[in-house]
Design a protein that fits this description.
heterodimer, A: about 280 residues, mainly alpha, globular, B: 13 strands, about 25% strand, elongated
């Protein structure tokens, strides 16, 4: 064991004064650390199952009866941006606080300058990257099985939809994760069902604040289905241009993450919970 | 360095810290108290984990809660074990340094140096899950001071360490306190005594004593001292003590036991010597423990209202 310096000159002290935090470095550090945590055998196995599942469903369907291109697109949309992304984010985003409390790392992280915000944004980045990667692999496998015409166009479109689904829903799940850390998974499933799949399908103003409306509307626009859409189905999509839909998701993400960050900054846990 | 003004922290209806006021200057300070006394809550308030329900707390002149400038000057080693098992100490401390804002080149350099200082140089690439509790404790300590904070706050830092490691880390922390500030919480008095720190005694969420070890001794010296006698003539001894005017409190917990509380222990001793000389049979005289352990125990009793 070595000695710490016996005396420290004022000059040395000034030079060694710790920085007041660097958000970019800290967020990158958290994201990297969270991705490392995901590189365990159970998590990798879970990711693999997630990646293979849509392709397996597609394989089972086309073996029973051949489906046309539009039906293939609808199936991929339901299986990947809607189902797989949500499931992946439930696993990766929901434990943002609960995992830290359970591992005893919450105090270590939050005593650092900007640690709380870095934890939120770093975990958010890791969740989006992980879920997005698994979803992209799933997309490639599913397209390989389905063999649709013009696959490149579908890859580009679904990559965008997967990206928007991940950034939007991860922000959505961040909120219950910081409000109810111990019940984050249940709360997030509730949010997914009530907000995304119930309110999102209501033909009312409330569906404007859901990611699912934006994704559906983008799918309809990019597939150019507007003209062929049955009149009753037009209630479930928005006819604004794609750019508006993308900006709406970005605004939603900003509001949700800002609110989650605000709440997380004020969270206090008694030592009994931390330990 | 640290100012607490009527600080109270409530968890719902549970009191964590109750109306604590204190001014701590630069240097080493020991926070003593039994388990559940409120030490960790007080440290949580100092390190910006918690916000006081009532009162105010300032570290380096500013409230620490959510204050990036103050948090960057504090290093904290919590009592809870590190259960992040897959990372190595090097990865863990590097991660903490990057959270503190050090870049990808500086963070591992600082981590390696700190781990070397706590004696984990060779084990720093082994996963934390394969390390003993004492080694994980060293890793936590390295993470607390690797960014060279102005104030190092340690909660039960020597828990789980073997005597050699304890001695080494006490020396390390003591040297730290020579140039920067230190607050160490412990329920073991000898740990804090070994750091030659000023003492603050906390009990039931309240600060019951604050000062140097000698100041706390003086405080206790001003209180009645308890002397326990075992004698077959309890009544006679009690009468003699009362007649001599040296009694503050009197208690007979058993037929053959008399406990006298006095501020004039010398006169009481003279009186008892005289009584024994005159034929009174005293089987045992037990003076109160005047070591710091005894003082701690005494302050606890006082606070609980056992002694009046």
């Amino acid at each position: 064991m070595k000695d710490l310096p016996q005396t420290v000159a004022a000059h040395d002290l000034a030079q060694s004064r710790p920085p007041e935090g660097n958000w970019f470095v800290a967020i990158r550090a958290v994201a990297g650390f969270q991705l490392n945590r995901l590189m365990t055998r159970p998590r990798l196995a879970m990711g693999l199952i997630g990646a293979v599942f849509p392709a397996a469903v597609m394989f089972a369907v086309i073996r029973t009866a051949p489906i046309d291109r539009n039906m293939t697109v609808v199936m991929i949309y339901a299986l990947i941006p809607e189902a797989l992304c949500v499931l992946g984010l439930l696993v990766t985003m929901c434990p943002v606080v609960a995992d830290e409390l359970e591992r005893g790392t919450w105090i270590h992280v939050t005593v650092r300058p900007g640690g709380r915000q870095s934890l939120l944004l770093g975990t958010y980045a890791a969740a989006v990257l992980w879920t997005g990667s698994v979803s992209l692999v799933a997309l490639m496998l599913t397209l390989f099985i389905a063999q649709p015409t013009q696959p490149i166009g579908l890859v580009v479109m679904f990559t965008a939809l997967i990206g928007l689904s991940c950034v939007g829903r991860a922000a959505l799940f961040a909120l219950p994760a910081v409000i109810l850390p111990k019940r984050a998974l249940i709360a997030s499933v509730g949010v997914a069902l009530l907000v995304e799949y119930f309110a999102g399908l209501l033909p009312a103003v409330v569906n404007q604040v859901t990611v699912s409306l934006r994704l559906r509307s983008l799918l309809v626009e990019w597939m150019e289905w507007q003209k062929d859409l049955p009149i009753e189905m037009t209630l479930f999509v928005d006819d604004y241009p794609a750019l508006v839909q993308i900006v709406a998701v970005c605004i939603l993400v900003f509001i949700l993450l800002t609110t989650a960050g605000f709440i997380l900054n004020r969270r206090q846990f008694p030592p009994s919970v931390e330990n | 360095m640290l100012s607490l003004q009527n600080v109270t922290k409530l968890y719902g209806t549970v009191i964590g810290v109750n109306d604590v006021s204190a001014e701590l200057g630069q240097g080493a300070h020991g926070l003593l108290g039994p388990n559940g006394a409120g030490k960790t809550t007080l440290l949580g308030l100092i390190t910006g984990q918690l916000r006081p329900t009532i009162g105010s707390i300032n570290v380096f002149g500013q409230p620490p809660f959510g204050n990036r400038r103050i948090l960057s000057r504090i290093g904290y080693c919590p009592a809870a074990d590190l259960t992040e098992r897959n990372a190595t100490p090097q990865e863990w401390v590097t991660y903490l340094m990057r959270l503190s804002g050090f870049d990808t080149a500086e963070a591992p350099r600082r981590a390696a140096r700190a781990l070397d200082e706590v004696g984990l140089g060779e084990a720093c690439t082994r996963p934390l899950s394969t390390l003993s509790k004492g080694m994980r404790q060293r890793a936590k300590l390295a993470g607390a001071f690797a960014h060279e904070p102005d104030l190092l706050v340690l909660d039960e830092p020597f828990d789980g360490l073997d005597p050699v490691a304890r001695h080494d880390l006490v020396s390390l922390v003591r040297r730290w306190a020579q140039t920067r500030s230190l607050i160490v919480a412990s329920h073991l008095l000898h740990e804090v005594e070994a750091l030659r720190a000023d003492l603050a005694v906390i009990l039931g969420g309240r600060l019951v004593a604050n000062g140097s070890a000698s100041e706390i001794r003086d405080l206790v010296d001003a209180l009645p001292t308890e002397v326990k006698f075992k004698t077959s003539s309890v009544d006679k001894l009690a009468q003699m003590a009362c007649a001599a005017g040296v009694v503050e409190t009197l208690c007979m917990p058993a037929e053959d036991t008399l406990v006298i509380g006095t501020r004039q222990a010398g006169r009481l001793a003279d009186m008892v010597a005289k009584a024994v000389h005159e034929g009174l049979v005293v089987h045992e005289v037990l003076a109160e423990d005047r070591t710091l352990e005894g003082i701690f125990s005494r302050l606890m009793k006082l606070h609980r209202g056992v002694e009046q």
